[in-house]
Amino acid sequence: MIPYAVELTDFLSHRSPNGEPVTFDFEGAVLWSVAGDNGAGKSAIFDAITWTLYGQHRGGTQDARRLISHGADSAHAAFAFAVDGERYRVERSIRRRGGGRRAAMRWNGDAARWEELPDTTSESGFAAWRDALLGLSYEAFTHAVLLIQGGSDRLVASGARERFEILAQLVDLTAYQRLERRARERALDARARGGAYAAELARLPEVEPERRTGVEAELERAAAARAERQTAWQAQVAVLEGARVHAALVDRRAAIEPGIAAGEALVQEAERIRAEAAEAAALAAARPHLEAGIAALTAAAAARDRDVAVGARGRGRHAGIDAAALRRAATAARRARLTAVRAAGVAGERAAARRRILPSLETALQRRLELLDVEEAAAQTGSPAAAAAAVAEAGGMLAQLVAARDDAHAAERDGERALARASAAVERADAALAESRAGRREVVCARCGQQVRPAQRRAHLAHLRAELTAGRKALRAAQAALAPLGAARREADAAVERARAIVAELERAHDRAHDAERAAVRAREAAGAARTALRSWRHPRAAVVAKGGRTEVEALRAELRAASADADREERELADAAGRAEEAAQRAAEAASEARRAEIELAQVPGAWAERARAGEPELPAALAGRLVELTPVAERLQALQAAESSLAELRAAHAELSAQLEALPREHAVGVSAAEARLARRAQALEDATALVRQVEGRLRELDLRERELGDLRERVGAAAREERLAARLATLLGRQGIQGHLIVRAAHGLERLANETLRALSGGALELEIAAEERRGRDEIVISARDLYAGGERTDASFLSGSEKFRVCVALAAAIGSYASGRPAIESLIIDEGFGSLDEAGRDEMIDELQRLAQLLKRVIVVSHQSEFHNRARFPHGYRLRRDGTVTEVERFV
Predict the structure, then answer these.
(1) How far apart are CA 880 and CA 878, in angstroms?
(2) What are phi and psi of 4, to 5 degrees?
(3) Mean pLDDT in the chain?
(4) d(Cα 65, Cα 515) in Å, to the nearest integer?
(5) Residues paired with 104 in a beta bridge
(6) d(CA 346, CA 344)
(7) Which pLDDT score, from 0 to 100, does residue 197 have?
(8) Per the CB 3.0–4.6 Å rule, which of 523, 635, 763, 813 could disulfide with 280?
(9) What pLDDT does residue 170 have?
(10) Other C-beta atoms within 10 Å of 110: how many?
(11) Residues 428, 15: Cα–Cα separation, whole Å
(12) Which one, of 290, 285, 312, 314, lies nearest residue 301 by Cα?
């Protein structure tokens, strides 16, 4: 990491009354001095570095609002640095009211701007990015890059045990410590659970083997008794079912026997009425034929006499029907029908010819009328080219108006932002003045602790009043400027809307012109196609279709429709005449057919009844019906007797089947149902008692099994808890100081020793060498740092006893080693020392400055902070900053 710049805005004593940050630019040189009196704000620079990177300052991580300068509402700090040739910038801000902000950015050289890195505005995202880039914790950073005030020699000056704790923080054993803590908690939890299980196991009584054996024998006896009673109960269930079947069969056989006796009596009467039944059957069979013949004769008379006056005898009388005469009349009627059909066909062909040509004529005339309409509409709309020119001109005007409207909107937004800024400034100034008047403002500086003098307080109040007056004046000016801007914006909006309406109307006119032109083309094409379809039409007025005007076209269409109507009327009249001839022929054919059918039907009727029908006896149907009525009871009685005979046979068969079933039943089933039910109830109760005894004994056996399982489960739990306790305790030991943590610290000590000696040999010209060892003394883990002066015999001595310049070289070497080891980078490239020279005398400080100048040849940035006068010397520090305190504000002077 190479620091480049630090920017402070209202940060501690670095006030920014005009809003411009105080900038410390460290670019252009390697060695820099930041000098000034105590309390001048030197360490605030490095508070800003640790606060922007880690959210920590000299006061820790809490109460960051104390970093805000006296009288300010917020503070902001930014730190720019380079890593591996890439430049980065981190920022943080804090407000007295409300939350803060943080972000990380990278310099884009091609675009010449800072670009915010994604996911760095949240604390977790920022920390993840920082750790991935630097690889340094706060502890490692303040031991490797920034040696904060009072801590530059902390690792060397500390005791051996404290060194171990510091090194543990630098190695970052947090994960292992957390795992160790969880393992020990797991061991304690397992021990507690094991004790609870053991106590519960001690309270439960053991299960004696003799008791289990006795219960199992008792269960075996009870199960055998229940099986025996189960068998007896099942046998009695079968007996009860058989008794019920036997009783049902007996009842069914008794119910059949009266029916058998009655059927045998009816069968004896059957022979006596069979003769009468035969006559009834013959008349019943002839009746349909007789009725059909009479109906056919009546239909023939009706067909013959239809549409003719029949005199006193009336329609429906059929005496004297001559079938041969009816056939001759049917032949004549067919000839008349053929003549009428031919005449109708000739008229139909003429009408069909007119109908074939009429649709094409109608279509051609309609297309001619449509063409006339379209040409008139096209003449009214004008040409598409003229309409397109008007649309283009209106579009240019609209574009100008839109640009003017956008300018008006932008001006109004600028006015609104100016009004918002003025309003916010007035609110802040008014709140600050009210708090100052009420005495709620601090009268002691939050960082330096110096008392604010009364004269300064009065000047501060006057400044607040002036700021409030200026803010109100700016607010009124912004309000006055905003009103005409709003009016101009509304007028511009209205003008744009009117222009858009005009453009839309012109576009619609342009579309109508195009549509009219296309419609005219389509109408001409349709009219041409219609005329092509009428090439075969020869008529004096055929030219009207191609060139006629609206009046001529309408007259020709009316003439054609009238001619078509006349042809259709003639066709309908001839068709009606053919239909009437068809009906007459049909009636004649029907009369002949009915007469023939009557002859066929009467041939099936006994002679006397058929002759009476041909003679036209009107009472014949009634006489036949009366005779059938007389014979109907005989027939019905015969049918009943025949059904009785069939039923008697079925009853005798069922009686025999029931008797056979009764014989097949076992003898023991021939008992009363009530007796069988009573015996079954007794055996069911015995079975229930045996089952209850078995369940009782099984319950006692289950209780014994449950207790044994509980005892076994508790024993397993006790053993598992003991194993878990041993494993967790072993894991805690392996994860602790005696295990992996100690191993990592020992490895870190060796790594730090190697890296520190690489830097120390360069700083001391090969004279000094460090030894860092991890040792256990009196049960405590300690880190011992020793040094050898190879030019003075190489005797080993504790690093805390080194001289000031030697200790400084050792601290710098350790800082470089810690940075390289913690970040995993090959070398540390910068070092910042904050007030690490106060305990040295003048000669020691001179030696330190010489060491710093030699160190600047090894690193890319060295920044020293001190209030000592030697660090003000521009000859020895040609690049730096001098800070002076003026009341509560720090003044910064850069010298190069």
Answers:
(1) 7
(2) -120, -40
(3) 76
(4) 75
(5) 90
(6) 6
(7) 85
(8) 635
(9) 64
(10) 5
(11) 17
(12) 314
CA distance 439 to 508: 73
Assigned token pair, 767: 């004279």
Distances (CA, A) of 166 to 155, 160, 603, 727, 749: 7, 10, 139, 30, 12
Q: Determine the Cα–Cα distance for residues 123 and 135; give it in Å rounded to an integer.
A: 17
Task: Please check whether residue 3 is in contact with residue 830, taking contact to mean a CB–CB distance below 8 angstroms.
Answer: yes
CB 70 within 8 A of CB 16: no
| CA neighbours closer than 13 Å in the CB half-sphere of residue 453 | 6
Q: Report CA Rg, the chain.
A: 64
For residue 666, give the 3-state DSSP assignment. Answer: coil
What is the value of pTM for the model shown? 0.41
Residue appearing with tokens 């008047």: 437
pLDDT for 420-472, tens place per residue?
A: 888 888 887 787 777 666 654 443 333 333 344 555 567 767 777 888 888 88
CA distance 168 to 744: 9
- Please answer whether residues 408 and 492 qualify as being in contact, where contact means their C-beta atoms are separated by less than 8 angstroms: yes
Q: Which residues pair with 101 in a beta bridge?
A: 93
Asked if 613 and 288 count as a contact pair (C-beta separation under 8 A), the reply is no
Q: CB neighbours of 512 closer than 8 A, spacing ≥ 6?
A: 381
CA–CA dist 32, 110 (Å, integer) = 30
Give the β-pairing of 86-95 and 101-108. Answer: antiparallel
Helix axes 842-855, 804-823, angle to 10 degrees: 30
Virtual CA dihedral for 394, 399, 405, 409, nearest 10 degrees?
Answer: 150
Contact (CB, 8 A) for 584 and 333: yes
Confidence of residue 334 (pLDDT cuts 50, 70, 90): low
At 767, is the secondary structure helix, strand, or coil?
Answer: coil
Half-sphere exposure of 623 (CA within 13 A, CB side): 10
Q: Can you tell me the distance from the alpha carbon of 603 to that of 292, in angstroms, rounded to the nearest whole number?
A: 11
DSSP classification of residue 788: E
Query: What local confidence, expressed as pLDDT, does residue 408 receive?
Result: 82
Structural element, H or E, at residue 16: none
44: amino acid identity, one letter = A
Give the number of other Cβ atoms within 10 Å of residue 590's Cβ: 18
Length of the chain equals: 896
Q: In terms of DSSP bridges, do strands 74-83 and 31-36 run parallel, antiparallel, or are they unpaired? A: unpaired
Q: Which pair of tokens denotes residue 658? A: 């029931």
Cβ-count burial of 26 within 10 angstroms (0-12 exposed, 13-18 middle, 19+ buried)?
buried
For 337-346, the CB contacts below 8 A with 24+ separation are: 337/578, 337/581, 337/582, 337/584, 337/585, 339/581, 340/574, 340/577, 340/578, 340/580, 340/581, 340/582, 341/578, 341/581, 341/582, 343/574, 343/577, 343/578, 344/571, 344/574, 344/575, 344/577, 344/578
Task: Give the ranges where 55-171 is alpha helix by DSSP (H).
Answer: 123-134, 138-144, 154-157, 160-171
Cα–Cα distance for residue pair 235/229, rounded to 1 Å: 10
- Structure-token match 């009870």, residue found: 222
Question: Nearest Cα to 85, choosing from 68, 106, 64?
Answer: 106
- What is the maximum span of the chain, computed from C-alpha positions, in angstroms? 174
